[in-house]
Design goal:
The complex is a heterodimer of chains A (412) and B (410). Chain A is of the alpha/beta class and 412 residues long. Chain A contains 16 helices and nine strands. The chains are: A alpha/beta (412), B alpha/beta (410).
């Protein structure tokens, strides 16, 4: 009896255990495996990383796996990142010909990395070029100029940037440029000046994506009216979830989408999390002391500043001085933007190596988590592919088509 | 009486006819051969300052025949010129990032203006591009940066300029750069500095021809020693015939040729004619001084610069202060250089739109005269083709080959 009972109980519990194990195991394995397959068979495109500044500091190379920062060839491969836009960036207070010179240096540094690592990297300037890189088993490197101050109000310089491979220009950075207002400066142009509108038209003609991240709301609306091609927000989030001027209101996201544009979700904790944003605002002294610490570690080396800013912020979070933000917030922003704008208008613009990354999204190797989380949320594989990169490629192809049309019209 | 007149007339005709007939047949034959040769050859001019005209207020049009200047598509077509190096040039006193930005503007102006006439002219980068363009019946447009000051002392700009299509860089213009001495400035670096040598090596790596026109003799010899690819003197003539620092001594030409390089003969009067050079030095202080005076008067106003320059030139010539110079002096310089180093090392670098042209070589339409004159001098068709453009293509190919080899190394 006892042995029977015991045997029966053992059997039942075994069955239960097996059932539970198999049950959860199957569904867990299934989604994880599906996510993995999906992720590594998709075109994963990141429209904004500040890795370029590390190249300029002089002691960084994309080849080996690095302990610091978020992006290098081994980690991009591990994370299934197929294409990445390297940002050409200098602070907006630097203007004039020196800004042109420094932008060229960064463009050159990116091109030099491509030459150096031609086995793994290829410089792409079109959607087709990105797909071709993929077919060759290489990562497509692209370039975006982050701030109109770098063209020195000179359309000739803009054209040379385009010729050297730049595929988008963010109209401003944190400060206004000579012809456009920034979201984080006092408005002086009421959006775009007339010359600013000429810049947009020339960008349309050249097939450069017009990037509205960083710009003021009025600049955004002006751009939307002037641009003949769909526009990109290369690294911006949803104001509805985190009220920061760098993020976009639902109305802006809808307007962007209505003209075929894409909002690329930024992973920066201060743009993801209202709690973090509020804490930052409540304690400006924390940011000041982070800035001082950064200065101490890096001096004027901007690549170092960006990386160390992220590391020091992380230390403050670990010390409990700033709230912890998890990577899952990224999913919340993607999901919100999809609900507001539709599945065709959302993508990824990490801000890796230029911002403070949330826990669990320290570097490019963590990207497959996004795919898995979206699948778990019930997104179809087709929808996930769009977010991972297809929307960006569609946008690029659209901008290229408009460029061809405009050039044909002009020549005739 | 009548018949006597008729006989006399007949006799005269008989006497004259063979002469005229013979002469005209021979002349026609040569002229025709020259014409055929000119229009079947790749004719490359390695130095034209036409770029600066794109910035003139009136809006210079490359596609229309202009009444002034020397270069436009109709006149290039008429002269059989099918390869042109547009010079990227700004005053040598402008340095740093401003120089870079202004150089970009000029590169942009070349591209934008060339793009207006895609049926006639297209941008070219390699020797192969030039040949393909020629086969399509179009003119190949290339670019050379005239003066290392436009790098803004930043070696990365060598790669940027190269990526933007620039195929040679003249190491200096009239003034020393931060890293090279000019022939028309006081030596400050004893030739090339170490950084200057780095730049030459980087140019080799990029397949950009190292241009030693304008540089000091010591800079020339330094560049010759460092460069792994043959050098170009994109627009220089022979000092043996006209003793100007901008020209090259026989020793320099020999050294250049020994390493495979090419001297591209410049048509500027004060570089080809000793009498003119001496008179010009007396009347204006020489070409460098004259240009710097004109720059003072006109600033960046390109039209003013051209107008005032022509006015001054005309006045001094009318006053008898400057002698007339014939285009045939160009032939003398070509011939001197060929006699010195052979036909493989001589080419054409007119300096059109940037210098004072001799009489009879006012613009690109006059180029066939050079071919005919060389034929008359007894040059073979093969040698003439080399001078007209093949030598330039050969050193471009060599520079491209060196670049490939250097880039293949880790």
């Amino acid at each position: 009896m006892r042995s029977d009972v015991r045997r029966t109980m053992l059997f039942v519990s075994l069955c239960l255990a097996v059932f539970v194990f198999v049950g959860t195991g199957v569904s867990g394995d299934d989604i994880t495996a599906r996510a993995r397959n999906l992720h590594f068979s998709s075109m994963v495109v990141d429209t904004h990383a500040d890795t370029t500044q590390r190249l300029i500091d002089g002691d960084f190379d994309l080849g080996p796996r690095n302990l610091k920062g978020s992006v290098d060839i081994p980690r991009m491969k591990q994370g299934g990142l197929g294409a990445i836009f390297f940002s050409i960036w200098i602070p907006s207070k630097i203007t004039g010909p020196i800004a042109v010179n420094r932008a060229l240096e960064q463009i050159e540094a990116v091109r030099e990395q491509v030459r150096k690592h031609s086995q793994d990297l290829v410089l792409a300037t079109t959607a087709a070029g990105v797909r071709e890189a993929r077919e060759q088993g290489k990562i497509a490197l692209l370039m975006g100029v982050e701030g109109g101050h770098m063209i020195h109000s000179d359309l000739g310089v803009l054209r040379k940037f385009a010729e050297l491979g730049v595929r988008y220009m963010t109209l401003t950075h944190s400060g206004n440029c000579e012809w456009a207002d920034s979201s984080t400066d006092k408005p002086v142009h009421n959006g775009l000046t007339d010359f600013g509108k000429d810049v947009i038209r020339e960008m349309n003609r050249l097939g450069l994506m017009v990037d509205v991240s960083h710009v003021s709301d009025k600049t955004f609306r002006d751009v939307l009216r002037v641009s003949k091609a769909p526009i990109i927000a290369s690294h911006s989030n949803c104001r509805a979830l985190c009220d920061h001027p760098r993020n976009m209101s639902d109305e802006m996201i809808r307007a962007l989408a209505a003209k075929g544009g894409v909002i690329q979700i930024n992973y920066h904790v201060g743009f993801l999390s209202q709690v973090f944003r509020s804490a930052e605002r409540a304690h400006p002294e924390i940011n000041q002391s982070i800035a001082m610490e950064v200065q101490k570690r890096c001096g004027e080396k901007e690549g170092c500043q960006l990386i160390e800013g992220d590391r020091i912020t992380r230390e403050y979070v670990e010390q409990g001085k700033l709230p912890r933000v998890d990577w899952t917030e990224i999913i919340e922003h993607i999901d919100h933007a999809v609900k507001v704008a539709g599945i065709d208008h959302v993508g990824l613009g990490s801000d890796f190596d230029g911002a403070n990354m949330p826990f669990g999204m320290e570097d490019a190797t963590s990207l497959p988590k996004i795919t898995e989380a979206l699948l778990r949320k019930g997104y179809s594989e087709g929808d996930v592919k769009k977010i991972l990169g297809e929307n960006t490629l569609r946008l690029m192809a659209g901008v290229e088509r408009i460029s061809r049309e405009l050039n044909t019209t002009k020549r005739n | 009486m009548r018949s006597a007149r008729a006989i006399f007339l007949f006799a005269v005709i008989c006497l004259l006819a063979p002469n005229t007939l013979v002469r005209s047949v021979r002349a026609d034959d040569l002229a025709e051969r020259a014409h055929k040769l000119q229009f079947s050859s790749i004719v490359i001019d390695t130095h034209d300052d036409t770029t600066q005209r794109f910035f003139s207020k009136a809006g210079f049009d490359l596609g229309k025949r202009n009444s002034d200047g020397a270069i436009d598509i109709p006149r290039m077509r008429e002269g059989g010129m099918n390869g042109i190096f547009f010079s990227i040039w700004i005053d040598g006193h402008i340095m740093g990032p401003t120089a870079i930005q202004k150089a970009l503007d000029q590169i942009d102006a070349v591209r934008e203006n060339v793009a207006k006439y895609p049926k006639d002219i297209v941008m070219a980068r390699t020797a192969e591009d030039v040949r393909r363009t020629h086969a399509q019946g179009k003119i190949a447009a290339l670019m050379g940066v005239e003066g290392g000051h436009m790098l803004g002392n930043d070696i990365r700009m060598v790669r940027i300029f190269s990526d933007l299509g620039v195929r040679y860089m003249t190491l200096s213009h009239f003034y020393n750069t931060e890293w090279s001495d000019s022939s028309t400035d006081k030596p400050a670096h004893n030739g090339l500095t170490d950084f200057g040598k780095e730049i030459v090596r980087e140019m080799n790596r990029q397949g950009m021809l190292v241009d030693i026109s304008h540089v000091s003799d010591k800079t020339f010899y330094d560049a010759l020693e460092i460069s792994k690819a043959p050098l170009i003197a994109s627009h220089s003539s022979c000092r043996a015939l006209c003793d100007h620092v901008r020209d090259m001594s026989d020793d320099m030409i020999k050294a250049l040729a020994a390493k495979g390089g090419v001297i591209q003969i410049n048509y500027e009067k004060s570089f080809i004619d000793q009498g003119y050079k001496d008179a010009s030095a007396k009347a204006t202080g020489g070409v460098v001084e004259m240009i710097s005076q004109l720059k003072k008067t006109c600033g960046d106003d390109e039209e003013c610069f051209e107008r005032e320059g022509a006015k001054l030139e005309k006045r001094l010539t009318d006053e008898g202060k400057l002698p007339h110079v014939s285009w045939e002096r160009i032939i003398d310089h070509i011939d001197h250089a060929v006699k010195l180093v052979g036909a493989d090392h001589v080419g054409l670098g007119s300096d059109f739109d940037g210098a004072n042209m001799p009489e009879g070589m006012e613009d690109a339409s006059k180029l066939p005269k050079i071919t005919e004159a060389l034929l008359r001098k007894g040059y073979s068709e093969g040698d003439i083709r080399k001078i007209l453009g093949e030598n330039t293509l050969r050193i471009m190919e060599q520079a491209e080959k060196v670049s490939k080899e250097l880039q293949a190394r880790p």
